[in-house]
Amino acid sequence: MTAARARAVGAALALCFPVSLTAQGRGEVTFGPDSFDVTGAGEFDLGPLDPVLGPLRENLAPNAWMTVALTLDAAGKPLACVPDRPEEYAEATQALCAHALKTGRFRRHPAVTLDYEQATYQLSVWYHEGRRGEKGEEFQTSENYPLERTRVRFADIELPPADQRLSIADLDYEPMSYPRSALSMDLRANVVVVLGFDAEGRVASCRPFESTNTARMAYETCKAAADSFRLKNAPDARSFVVSIAWNIP
Asked: Do 246 and 182 form a contact (C-beta atoms < 8 A)?
């Protein structure tokens, strides 16, 4: 789907209104202090991968994917790295994990507020022979969508009472664009997040509350909300609850 269509879909459908959260798939996961997946809540900085994996390219298929699950501490430092398929491209995935543990660091998006002691982050590295990225790199990274089609609840917060919240009349806002990566995968979800504002009226925090289809949809909602909402009469300590149905017609 083109970027123009993504904006059009977002403009038409990304409206704030009460929604009934019903699970779209099987199972439910509750995230707590020691059980979070933060894929999509920020970026994992690995630095250039070509010096690390380039010497091993001869052992890779022309179109090679390597996926790892990283365990992070609260500061974003990786504690462990587990390949999804350790027997495939074993030497390269071992080099990737060693590099990630030594130099990698997760940096959360400034608007996304999460309280965790440990978290997982799912990362893929891909290599297409003869193709390079925007910066000329051979090895490029890609985030996964973890827990696809699984309802996720965030146990670290409670919604503020209705009479203690901001209303949409208290805000200036623009429609949120549909998360581009979710749009390309035809992912839909009902999401609830809670916004807080700084003294200038900008979104200062966004706490995910619930998503009917993978935690990352809540993180993407937070990032979109940070660019779309502004408080009219700042400062105001009250929160605003965003309830949104991401749906593709």
From this structure: yes
Joined together, the tokens standing for residue 23 give 């699970």
- Closest listed residue to residue 2, CA positions, set 209, 160, 183, 228: 183
CATH architecture assigned to 3-28+151-246: 2-Layer Sandwich (3.30)
Listed residue (158, 118, 123) closest to 139, CA to CA:
123
Cβ contact 73:108 at 8 Å: no
Name 44's Cβ contacts closer than 8 Å, sequence gap at least 6.
70, 100, 104, 105, 106, 107, 121, 123, 141
192-234, pLDDT tens digit by residue? 999 999 999 999 999 999 999 999 999 999 999 999 999 999 9
Taking only the tens place, the pLDDT of each residue in 119-161 is 999 999 999 999 998 889 999 998 888 887 889 999 878 899 9
